[in-house]
Amino acid sequence: MAFWNRRRSIDAMNAPHDGPALKKTLGWPHLIALGVGAIVGTGIYTLIGVGAAKAGPAVMLAFVIAGLVCVFAALAYAELAAMMPASGSAYTYSYVALGELLAWVIGWSLILEYSLVVSAVAVGWSGYFSGFLESVGLGLPVWLTTGPFGSETPGLVNLPAVAIVGVVAGMLMLGTRESATVNAVLVAVKVLALAAFVAIAAPHFDPANLQPFMPFGFGKSLDAEGVEVGVMAAAAIIFFAFYGFDAVSTAAEETKNPGRDLTIGIVGSMVVCIIIYLAVAAAAVGAMPFTEFAASPEPLAHIARTLGSDTAATVIAGAAIVALPTVLLAFMYGQSRVFFVMARDGMLPRKLARVSEKRGSPVLMTGVTAILMAIIAGLFSLGELAALANAGTLAAFVAVGASLIVLRIQQPKRERVFRAPLWPVVGLGAILGCLYLFVSLPVSTQVNFLTWNAAGLVLYLVFARRNTRLAKGEEAEA
After folding, report:
1. Is 410 exposed, middle or buried (0-12, 13-18, 19+ CB in 10 A)?
2. Chain-centre distance of CA 121, in angstroms?
3. For this UniProt entry, which residues form the secretion signal (predicted)?
4. Domain 27-467: which topology?
């Protein structure tokens, strides 16, 4: 078979192998906490302001559109993850269904996604941390809280963003179960803070703040300053707020009962987060005109403060400071596991697939990815990072939708612990929805994404295609 179409066998992949192995320490409560921890974060705490600036009150509709696309993708992930409990997520599914070359593209896109998500969330966390310090009279100078690229007030380095990446990496190096337990506690803090915001903002709901509901139209267009606006432009950015459930699938090899627990973790975390997001978005845009909070780096705290609840604003900002690192933890976890599996498959140098005997986790890869993410977070702004991260995720979700359809057609009788309902609709919904969102991204983001993958293809042709387990005959092709 041609190298670009080499495919892994599901049976061979699920069979015990002689490579490095991860410890099975997680149950479904850990996975739901991991999913909610990954999904609920910068998107609702910070990007709701960015989305409102593009869509006005119709940011609520943008949340619905992005959430619907993610529901399709989540159902596809749930079926494939339960059928192939390997830590590579969309990369692994693509390797089985779509062939080695496309698997590389998706793995390379996941590396982009996870790296930039962690960096973007670190920048968002820095905004809340800086605002919190200012509220208690300990503000940092601007040149230490903003990077030199993409900011209206460029500085030298975003020091808080770099620091929080280092702290979370240290937590992950302690071990998977230990970090998952801490994550569950922080997720509870985060959800309670959002509930408090809704309780404060909801009594101030004024229908007049929703008019005009769609001031910039539905489709993507340019405003007077050349900025892309509209509901779909907002949805393409807000999409960042919903994904994270894919990080749950990277925990497959560390889950005690993957067939059951992965499905509960992926679908359960999505349902919980959709409810939370719609409640918070409605409370935010109903409490005050969107123009008054759209530009704030900490919009929820800003709304609470403007409504006269200074104490609540401080609590919300403090909760974001404590709890946003759960997003960092989930995506840094996912990044290291995708790297790990790609290295174990020979796509990347196999020495990177080392597992600590004491901790049962890939400590080396966690350290390498943390350094990369810290550099990005220290230098770039939130908006640029979120948009480019979305491009990588959209590519992965398209591949998962396609993999679902291909495997349902090619292997209809294979046992499936969870079967996505109306699978043609789910698969096509994920594919077409994500393609539409990709087209709605800024053109510069699309170009940067294609440039990233062009560089990745060169690396594949020079190194990976000759060194994979399939290329060396270490594993039989499907």
Report:
1. exposed
2. 10
3. none
4. Amino acid/polyamine transporter I (1.20.1740)
